Amino acid sequence: METRIDRLGSVREDKIRQLKQLIADYDNIVFLGGAGVSTESGIPDFRSGTGIYNSDSGMKYRPIDIIAHDFFMEHPEDFFDFYKRKLIYPDARPNKAHKALVRLERQGKLKAIITQNIDNLHQEAGSKCVIELHGSVFRNYCMECGKKYDLEYVVAQEGVPHCEKCGGMVRPDIVLYEENLNHKDVDDAIKAVKKCDLLIIAGTSLTVYPAATFAQFLKHDRIVIINKSSTYMDLKALLTIHDNVGDVLDMCVPKRATSKTRAKSVASKTKAKAKTATKTKDAAKTTTKSKAASDKKAKTTAKAKAEPKAKTAAKTGTKTTAAKKSPAKKATAKKPSTSKSAGKVNGGKS
Length: 350
What we know:
Elements: H1 4-25, E1 29-33, H2 63-66, H3 69-74, H4 76-86, H5 96-106, E2 110-115, H6 121-125, E3 130-132, E4 135-142, E5 148-149, H7 151-156, E6 170-174, H8 183-195, E7 198-202, E8 223-226, E9 239-241, H9 245-252, H10 259-325, H11 327-349
Parallel strand pairs: 1-2, 1-7, 2-3, 7-8, 8-9
Antiparallel strand pairs: 4-5, 4-6
Helix pairs in contact: 5-9
């Protein structure tokens, strides 16, 4: 007799099969991830029962209040005390979710990862197309002179880190509450979502804006939700799986590209190379035409300059020739004058 557990098990298996098929069918996939993607790497999320917001901050302030812009500016010592204890995990390593996304990207299917995480694990795993909406703890900068610092520098400083160049306060390059997101990152994320034919949303409760609204830019309903808890998109999504992100992605993303995927990838690369070659060829033609036009112009200019000189030379040559033709006449004309003049001189002496 079939039990409730059996039915749930079969439903999960069916959903895994569906996701595998969706990944196989589409070649422009975008992944939108939140804190739940990194929990399997030992980094706590924010809103679950054991998340950062529900944990003891170790001080009289609530965690959610500490990571706000005004608090940071007014209480930098308390901010960095909490920040170093609760938000930095330098020893965390990529998990199955990060590695599965790298495989999907290398197979030519995943076009962008949009992440709300600040842990740099996607890049460490090997992903290239990562849009970090909320920044990264691995990037830090002086608020006075802009000098950049790595995470090691911040961790090594006692209390509030200061710039070794100007003494200004060094802050992490992350987006705190009350601060604006980088406009370019948001624009890039929206562009990627608009172009995709499959959007996978994982490890996020979809309560943080603007990421929570990105799905509205889709022109279709091909949305997959992978999250332990429910989201407002669950009923609108094509497929919803309440499970660990790492387990699901590891099962659904092939360890190796299929022959069909490899063929598509090769075709895509060949097309890209052909496009680049065409552009190079067109650029070479344009350069050749430009050079020919430039040479023609130079010749025309040289000819234009040479013509007046030739005419002047021709006129001068004509005069010279005329002068050469009548030298005796000119000499005869000068003789009386010379002779007359000489006679006067001689006459004076006598």
